[in-house]
Amino acid sequence: MDPPGSTAGACTTSSAADTPSSTTSTKATQVTNDSNSPPEAIMKEKPFAMVDATMIKNKVPPPEEQVPTPNPMVAIVSSSTAESTAASTGGNGGRRSSKRTTMTTTTTTAPPPAKKKPKTSSKKEQDLIDMAWICVACREAECAMDMTSDLLICEGPCRRLFHTACAGLAQMPCSDESWTCHDCRDQRHLCACCQEYGNDQEDIFKCQKQECGLFFHEACLNMQNIAVKTTTNTNSAATNEPETNEHEKDEEATTAPTPRSVKFTCPAHWCWTCTQDETMDDSNTAQQKTKTKGRRRSRTSSVFVPKRDPRLYSCLECPTSYHLTCIPPSCKVHELALLCHEHAENHELPALDMEASFQGTVEAAADKKLQKLNHKHNLDNNPLAAKLNRKRLKRRKARNPFFPAGVVVDRRTAHEQVILSKLSTTTAKATDPTKEDDEMTVELILGNNNNNSNNTNSSSSASSDQRLLFGLPQDIQEEVHSKPPLYKHIHSLKYYPDSKPKKIPPTKDICNCVDKCDEHCLNWLLYKECVGEKGSYTNCRLGPKCGNRKLGLKQHVKKCKPMREQGRGWGLAVQETVKRGGLVQEYLGDVIDEPTKEERLRQWNLEHPNDPNYYIMCLSSGWYVDARETANMARFINHSCDPNCILWRFNVGGYMRDGIFALRDIQPGEFLSYDYHFDTKQGDKFVCRCGSKNCRGTMKEQQQKKADTKKTKGQLWEQAKQKYEKDKEYIQNYNAHEKHNATVWAMVPGTSNSGNTKGGDKVEWTSNGVPEIDRFYATRSRVFLWRTAVLGSNFASRNARMERRRRRSRQPSPAAATAPKATMDVLAILEQLKGGA
Ligand SMILES: C[S@@+](CC[C@H](N)C(=O)[O-])C[C@H]1O[C@@H](n2cnc3c(N)ncnc32)[C@H](O)[C@@H]1O
Questions:
Q1: Is 411 exposed, middle or buried, given 0-12, 13-18 or 19+ CB atoms closer than 10 A?
Q2: What is the pLDDT of residue 786?
Q3: What integer best gives the mean pLDDT of the chain?
Q4: Helix, strand or coil, per DSSP, at residue 700
Q5: pLDDT at 375
Q6: Burial class (CB in 10 A: 0-12, 13-18, 19+), 437
């Protein structure tokens, strides 16, 4: 497979999300937080919306009929003022509703009950104003204190929040009605890792933390190395528990007994950086405090250890979470949202309405003060004053209580702002040229429902959110996933007449097979298929039924079907048994050269920047097969680090062809897979989700090769020489009277017959035992060890040719002078062996 070196991101195949765009809330974002209503009163009015929020704040356990507390993971911990948080419309850029969508917290430390808008910023009050909710459908943030907001909390396991309209309801359900979202009703949820739907408790499982509403596929958990306890019977779970990690100790699954239970704690509950969970142990700090209490600080304890905020902040795009003080510099962060180190590069934070945000308020206040000061002292044009201002500006950043010093707020650049506003203005002008610019922008963004705002900043933020908001509801997503994508089906490689690879000239070698051309066949060993029959050119003694003509005779598996494969898009499953060594499929498509390949990749990435699928496979040097639009079923076969197939390139009648062969017997219903060995420098972007135990985490070429290439020539030569000496010794002891076939077979390192018995003793046919790695490398790279010379390669004649050339040039050969004598000895042995056979 040949992905480009630079473009694709590692994301899922579909762009689907759950947001029905028609029901997207277009509510104005001015939310007041001056409600005086006591929690009880609100509970009566809106049992599904803010009730749970209040309970969380009060740490009140929910009454039995209202089972769960809300998922605090949908609470933005933003330290923003209530207005600002709410005014930061659509404060997140995630695309799917099942993800936590904001800089979220899993804290169980509840803020105090809702009160009047706080005037001071004591710790508790700060906590209170920290809280904001986000609707998982429209992604609009609501202040947790806004008791008039119409947010509903799903009472199902997902614990997500929706606006009433976004949940598809005309009005709030009655207080005695319980409400669960569509996904919880259908018992189907999206995996927070791969964003594919799965059936609850069958192939998708909820994190065991009670307040967590995230679901994961088992394979996705394996891929992330998350410890999982699997039990078939929940009753026996207690007795038969395997080892657990430290994050799993606190909570038990809340789900009812099921035939199979998978228990785990998802990555949203511990910090990626320090690996501690949200109940972060501050005992060090505490100890230090106790030590220093009542006596003077010793020198050693004089280091200031700040008390860390134990809350975890999660990425918009995945469950990766950090403590505030553990956020690495490679992340993007602002007061409403965070992008983890992996998503920061390829994703944008939602635009922050700076004027209304907390950050903006702090900065504006500082600016005002500065201006006043300048005015007072009339220092505007004074260079000294300018210097002073710069210093103050620096200090101003550090004064923001939300960010630790040094964390820079990510703002939309001026350039982006201009583009966005121009875009919206031009489109609006096209429809109604009489309108004023600002008015049009707002109207366009808010769908004519809101004419109050003329804040271009917030419009551009809304605009960007609209871009991110698009998504498909589950039923549409399922519809899309019910059929594999269309492509033009072909039965043989499609060559373009003006650019076709050159034919490889035939050789005079003919195989020696007696009954059947199988793995012993000379052609097979040289990655050639037998062709022709008596009377015409042929390289085979046996004729068309020889057994080594699978690609030529299209002897591939006929019954196979494209099916969705968890986290990998479409895959190909067989519907019949495939025997080991059998041809599964030929990889078919357009045969293109290097420049065409580069151009196609460039063009596709330009037009489909989010498509993670690559279909270009190497065919021979400088030639490729592109199976994106013209192909056969092989285009659906996915990658696995523990594959059941392998891709081999065979010369069939002078042209190379890619065949996918079974590495073992494959049963009906099994998905086919092979190792892509993606040739890319950006292996990290091609995330593998095969879920196998030995998963490399990437579809990139194995590291092994890299290690080899790092070796210097001298080291490689030394290594080869040592091996050569050992092999020479072995060959000398070799019983040359063995039957030819056995000899040939045994000479192929790593094959199952490569250990033979001689006089009852096990004989290693290679000096170091079975070098599996050599076999793999040799077969994959089509590099044969010198031992395979006995199989008919023209190794000896090549040497003779070279010797002749040297003699002709009448120059003493430097190689001959330094060549170890052993080479000649081994050649002699090889000749002997050949003669003996
Ligand atoms: C030849 S296509 C395979 C068919 C593809 N899954 C589809 O839906 O059309 C190769 C692409 O499939 C996806 N893919 C294949 N194996 C994968 C794996 N183990 N993990 C993640 N993505 C995989 C990647 O996007 C890759 O670029």
A1: middle
A2: 44
A3: 62
A4: strand
A5: 63
A6: middle
- Please choose, from the candidates 344, 340, 284, the residue with its C-alpha nearest in 3D space to the C-alpha of residue 314: 340
Name the closest-CA residue to atom 14, ligand 1.
568
Q: Ligand 1: which atom is nearest the Cα of residue 639?
A: 16
Residue whose C-alpha is closest to residue 207's, from 147, 241, 247: 247
pLDDT of residue 669: 92
For residues 561 and 350, give the distance between their C-alpha atoms in angstroms, rounded to a whole number.
Answer: 41
Distance from residue 260's CA to the centre of ligand 1 (Å) = 29
How many CB atoms are located within 10 Å of the residue 299 CB? 7
Please, where are the H alpha helices in 733-820? 740-747, 772-781, 795-808, 814-818
CA nearest neighbour of 769 among 784, 749, 752, 786: 749
pLDDT digits (tens, 9 = 90+) for 450-472: 333 333 333 333 333 333 333 44
Question: How far is it, in rounded angstroms, from Cα 728 to Cα 568?
Answer: 47
Q: Containing H/E element for 756?
A: strand 755-758
- Kindly report, residue by residue over 274-308, the tens digit of the pLDDT: 777 765 444 444 444 434 333 333 333 333 444 55
**Which residue's CA lies nearest to atom 26 of ligand 1?**
613
**What's the rounded Cα separation, in Å, for the pair 833 and 434?**
94
Within 6 A (CB) of ligand 1 lie: 13, 568-570, 612-615, 635-636, 638-640, 688-690
Average pLDDT over residues 475-489: 72
Structure tokens at 549: 């003509």
Q: Mean per-residue pLDDT for 710-714?
A: 75
Containing H/E element for 704? helix 703-710
Give the Å distance between the CA of 669 and the centre of ligand 1: 18
Specify which of 78-82, 428-432, 693-697 reaches the highest per-range mean pLDDT.
Answer: 693-697
- The pLDDT, as a whole number, for residue 655 is 93
CA distance 313 to 323: 6
Atom of ligand 1 nearest to the CA of 689: 20
627 CA to centre of ligand 1 in angstroms: 13
Taking the CA of residue 641 as reference, the ligand 1 atom at the shortest distance is 19
Protein residue closest via CA to atom 7 of ligand 1: 570
CA of 639 to the centre of ligand 1 (A): 6
Q: What is the pLDDT of residue 671?
A: 94
Residues 624, 592: Cα–Cα separation, whole Å: 5
688 C-alpha to center of ligand 1: Å? 9
Numbers of helices and strands, H then E, in the chain? 22, 29
- b vs e for 58-75, b when ≥16 Cβ sit within 10 Å of the residue's Cβ? eeeeeeeebebbbbbbbb
Query: Which of 15, 563, 568 should be mutated for ligand 1, with most atoms under 8 A from CB?
Result: 568
How far is Cα 291 from Cα 286, in angstroms, rounded to an integer? Answer: 9
- The residue nearest atom 11 of ligand 1, judged by CA position, is 613
Measured by CA distance, the residue closest to atom 12 of ligand 1 is 613
Encode pLDDT of 488-505 as tens digits.
899 999 999 888 899 988
Residues in CB range of 519: below 8 A, 6 or more apart: 525, 581, 745, 748, 751
Structural domains in the chain, CATH included, are: 33-233+273-280+311-339 (no CATH), 414-474 (no CATH), 485-689 (2.170.270.10), 710-836 (no CATH)
Going from the Cα of 216 to the center of ligand 1, the distance in angstroms, rounded, reads 19
Mutate which of 615, 638, 644, 660 for ligand 1 pocket (most atoms within 8 A of beta carbon): 638
